[in-house]
Amino acid sequence: MEQAVIAALLLMGLVIGAGVGASYARAQRGWKDYQTIKTSVPGARRTAWVAIRAVVTKIGVIALLLVGAAAYAAAGSDHERADPATTPTPTVTATPGHRAGR
């Protein structure tokens, strides 16, 4: 009977120990992964800001081009102002009842 109690206690200790050991191993892996990521964050942050800066620069250039095109279209082209359409000039004709020069 005494051997059965010892065997049961040993089995319970084995099950509890296996659970605690697995949890400890998982915690160690998590801590190691955390430390690895923690050291790589500054580089990743720098890379993200470089990418954001490139995108913002491209958007700014495109916006400036669009604003310039809209301003040019609103003002009209220089060709229309420099060469207005020709209009016929009125000619003076003398009326039959009126003599010119008097």
UniProtKB/TrEMBL annotation:
The chain crosses the membrane at residues 51-75. Residues 84-96 have a biased composition (Low complexity). The keyword Transmembrane applies. It comes from the Bacteria. Residues 78-102 are annotated as: Disordered. Keywords: Membrane, Transmembrane, Transmembrane helix. This is Uncharacterized protein.
